[in-house]
Design a protein that fits this description.
CATH class of the largest domain: Mainly Beta
CATH superfamily of the largest domain: Hexapeptide repeat proteins
Largest sheet: 7 strands, mixed
Strand content: 15-25%
Order of helices and strands: HHHEEEEEEEEEEEEEEEEH
Distance between the termini: 41 Å
Shape: flat
Number of strands: 16
Oligomer: single chain
Length: 221
């Protein structure tokens, strides 16, 4: 059965579509500058991308959110049209992927990451490009001159990463990472982790025994 769309809802969709289109136009000069610079010096493509990301990260207000999303829709490997990217958030590489319904809070730092649908990232969350971004085996060469290895970190769907967390390994679907946690090992789906280094504190969907014992017995129990 077809359900008629209300006039107000239809008008809202039209307005959002127009605003998205205008945001694309505003973001286009940044996109073109990045692509031209990357073609001239392809080895520094990520640096040019980061410069544009930093510039757009400090665009305030609602318009800033629209323009940031428009730029990343043009540049990232994948970026959903309904995601939200907060003020001050910077992406390190266009190889990142953002699924539908994703919310990224303020002052985030995102590396080679795939963020699944409906996932929430709090403020000041850092997703590193794996655990070996810098090699430090040699003592006769400064660390900054030693090569590193960048690997993709995947955060599953419907996960929640709390404020100030640092993530360097995969986080499973529907998992929760507590605020301030440092993730150095993969997090299983539905796990709740916290601490430095992060350890498992519980699992979503499980009934805690201490809560059950405290429940008053009723006639319906």
């Amino acid at each position: 059965m077809l359900v008629a769309r209300s006039p107000a809802r239809g008008a809202t969709a039209v307005v959002k579509g127009v605003v998205d289109f205008l945001a694309i136009l505003v973001a286009m000069p940044f996109f073109l500058a990045y692509r031209v610079s990357a073609m001239i010096a392809s080895a520094r493509a990520d640096s040019f991308f980061q410069s544009c990301s930093e510039a757009l990260s400090i665009w305030p207000g609602i318009t800033g959110g629209y323009v940031r999303r428009a730029f990343y829709r043009l540049t990232l490997r994948r970026c959903a049209r309904d995601c939200s990217i907060g003020f001050g958030t910077v992406f390190a590489t266009p190889a990142a992927e953002i699924g539908p319904g994703v919310y990224i809070g303020t002052y985030g730092n995102i590396g080679h990451a795939t963020i699944g649908a409906d996932t929430l990232l709090g403020s000041n969350v850092t997703i590193l490009s794996g655990r070996q971004q810098h090699h430090f085996d040699r003592l006769d060469v400064p660390i900054r001159h030693q090569d590193g290895t960048y690997s993709r970190v995947t955060v599953g769907r419907d996960a929640w990463i709390g404020n100030g967390a640092i993530v360097s390994c995969d986080v499973g679907d529907q998992a929760i990472v507590a605020a301030g946690a440092i993730v150095v090992r993969p997090v299983s789906p539905r796990s709740i982790v916290g601490g430095n280094p992060a350890v498992v504190l519980g699992e979503r969907g499980q009934v805690r025994e201490d809560v059950v014992k405290q429940r008053p017995v009723t006639a319906s129990s």
